[in-house]
Each structure stands twice: as structure tokens, then as C-alpha cells.
Write a structure and sequence with these properties.
- The protein is an alpha/beta fold.
- The chain has a single domain, classed as TIM Barrel, CATH 3.20.20.
- Helices cover 50% and strands 14% of the residues.
- It has twelve helices and nine strands.
- Strands 5-4-3-2-1-9-8-7-6 form a nine-stranded parallel sheet.
- Helix 7 links the parallel strand 4 and strand 5.
- Helix 10 packs parallel to helix 12.
- It is globular and about 45 Å long.
């Protein structure tokens, strides 16, 4: 059984949505990212996404790009990302890596899959890799019981959604907007049709990211989706406290608590 799916099922049994939180590894530095992600778990994130910083992040908006660039400038490497995964997975929270495909291919698909499994990672979210171009990753993941989280979008045809959900494991990631992260605020009602079309093809939980940054927005989205995915708001909180780690972590905890309260509303 996927530990990620189990976290979603636990939340569903409690009559609420799952809170999925994202931060890039190595931001503000490796140890700082570990501390921040642990705070997010302690304050109410059910599932963690750890970003693998990349120089050409086609899906990420300026907020996440700024954080990833900071990590890259500091010399973050894939082995460092796996070290962050290991530290966060040790909390018991399902911990996935979100990455573009090129770094995995360069590192070696089998090597990456084994490193992720050895670190206790739950799986991989691949925003620029579709199932029909992922046979090597699917085989490597299946051999190690790793989750394969693929994305659907408002532009996806019903056929494409069915293909994507059939290949997914853990949950399905539905992007609520057409565009990069952190730049638009979609409404929960606006993404409801995509959620419904996705759920018509699978029993897997559906997590949605739509630019959520408040508890009220999380509560609104939680009435439609199985999971509320938050990234840019967490990153922005740390960017707003440069050089003051204690203040940044305190603000991060407060935001996480607010969002966790929202998915429970």
C-alpha cells in the first residue's frame, strides 16, 4: 500500500482533505530546508513535496524560481536532495520529490529510484513527464514500490486524463490553472470540473494546486478535492524573512497551522 494513499485515506476517514506542502531542497540552505520541512510536518502538513532545484523550471513561477536559484547558487546537488528526503521521511510523513525529468535522467533513472527508495522517499512527482514517455521510470518505480504522480490540467482531454490516472500511483496531481505557479488564483468552483473528470477515471485521490495561500482558500478547495497542495505561499513566507531563520520558521508554522485548519473546516 502506498504510504501517500494511506495518508489521503486517513484524512478522508477524518472527514477532511489532505494538506500537501512543498519547499525546494536547499532553500534557504540544506539544513535550513530540513528544519523548515520538519516544521511544516509538525504544524499540520500530511504529505510533503520536496522540490529538486533545476535551472529551467517551466512550471514554476517567480517565487519558486527565486528559491530554487538560491539553492542552485549555493551548490545544491541531487545527493543533497536525497539527504533532505531522508531527514524529512524520518518524521513519518510521506515524502515525495517533485522534479523535472532532465535531472533524473542525468543522474540515472535506476540510480535515482534506488536512492529515493533508500532514503525512505514515497515517490516522485514529474510535471514535465507524461506516462507515455515514462516506461523506464514506471518500471524503476514499480520495482521499488514508489509512487508515480503524474499531472492533469484543464486542457487535458478525457482520453489523456484516463491514460494519466491509469499510470499514476499515490495520488493524481491536478493543476488548477494554465500557467506557472504562484501567479494566478483560481477558484475552487473553477477547478471542480477537472476534479470531477479526473475522479470519473480513477479511485486514486486527487490533489489540487491553485495558488492557495490562506486557510479560507484551503477550506473552499477542500470541499472539492481530496488534497490541497500549497507551494508558493510556503516559499514566499521564507523569502519574506531573509537572514532571520527563527522568524521564518515561526511564520512558516503559523501559515501551516492556518492551512491545516482550513482543510479541516
Amino acid at each position: 500500500m502506498s504510504t501517500t494513499s494511506t495518508a489521503f485515506e486517513k484524512a478522508r476517514a477524518e472527514g477532511r482533505a489532505t494538506l500537501v506542502g512543498y519547499l525546494p531542497a536547499g532553500f534557504p540552505d540544506v539544513e535550513g530546508s530540513i528544519a523548515a520541512l520538519k516544521v511544516m510536518v509538525e504544524a499540520g502538513c500530511d504529505v510533503i513535496e520536496i522540490g529538486l532545484p533545476y535551472s529551467d523550471p517551466v512550471m514554476d513561477g517567480p517565487i519558486i524560481q527565486a528559491a530554487a536559484q538560491q539553492a542552485l547558487d549555493a551548490g545544491i546537488r541531487t545527493d543533497d536532495v536525497l539527504r533532505v528526503v531522508e531527514a524529512v521521511a524520518a518524521t513519518g510523513a510521506p515524502t515525495l520529490v517533485m522534479t523535472y525529468w532532465n535531472p533524473v535522467e542525468r543522474y540515472g533513472v535506476e540510480r535515482f529510484a534506488q536512492g529515493l527508495a533508500d532514503a525512505g522517499g514515497a515517490g516522485l512527482i514529474t510535471p514535465d513527464l507524461t506516462p507515455d514517455y515514462a516506461p523506464e521510470w514506471i518500471a524503476a518505480a514499480d520495482a521499488r514500490d514508489l509512487d508515480k504522480v503524474f499531472l492533469v490540467a484543464p486542457s487535458s482531454t478525457d482520453e489523456r486524463i484516463a491514460l494519466t490516472t491509469a499510470a499514476s500511483r499515490g495520488f493524481v496531481y491536478a493543476t488548477g490553472i494554465m500557467g506557472v505557479t504562484g501567479t494566478k488564483q483560481a477558484t475552487a468552483a473553477g477547478v471542480a470540473p477537472l476534479i470531477a473528470r479526473t475522479k470519473a477515471t480513477t479511485d486514486l485521490p486527487v490533489g489540487v494546486g491553485v495558488g492557495v495561500s490562506t486557510g479560507a482558500q484551503a477550506a473552499d478547495l477542500a470541499s472539492y478535492a481530496d488534497g490541497v497542495i500549497v507551494g508558493s505561499a510556503f516559499v514566499r513566507t521564507l523569502l519574506d524573512h531573509p537572514g532571520d531563520r527563527a522568524a521564518g520558521l515561526a511564520a512558516l508554522a503559523a501559515l501551516t497551522e492556518e492551512l491545516a485548519g482550513g482543510v479541516r473546516a
